[in-house]
Design a protein that fits this description.
- This protein is mainly alpha-helical and 216 residues long.
- Helix content is 63%, strand content 7%.
- A 3-stranded antiparallel sheet has the order 2-1-3.
- α8 crosses α9.
- The protein is globular, with a radius of gyration of 18 Å.
Amino acid sequence: MTVSIQLKDINKEITKISKDDFFTIEKYLLDNDLASDKEDSKTIKARLQNPPVLTPEEFAEELIYVILASGFSQKTAKKKYIEIANYLKTTSEPNIEGLLQIFNNKMKMGAILKIWKNKEIIKNRYYELQTDEDKLDYLETLPFIGKITRNHIGRNLGINVVKYDIWIVRLANGLNYKSCDDMFADVQKETNLPLGYIDVILWKSCQLGIFKIKTK
């Protein structure tokens, strides 16, 4: 496999992501408001540098967004998230039928309803835990949360972790790293940025085709 960067006037094959490469791509994403997840990139970076304590509602909303984003495009997840969050916050007794009218996926809507109804217990339990690994393990026990989605949520909550989704795995393979962690260690050494933030930039760059990954 080979990896090339294709951005504006740049079209070059690379064997590693240099400091200049990363910051050039980051600037393009920021200038065009593309480096975002549920929150914008500045909020994600700030949370990784100083994790906040969220309210039960805010905490539940982070979980809800990632459940929606699993298996769907960011555009679809954001649109449905806004509709679902509005329904949950403005309905005195939200129910599965109401949620299914917004998004017809019974498993996801059931998980979202359960999380919303137990949001205070879930939030309190999370913040009682002392280590990031314990927190990630706890997130994985919640409805419709797996090993990749727990890291996605954890990163958005302020844990300095990466998602290891298919784009990231392909990029690491294309650059001939033995593991994704080796790739992130190199980029962090180049940039001195939080791993979770590096993940956002690299993932979005792959999704947008800035990194072209080809099989020889």
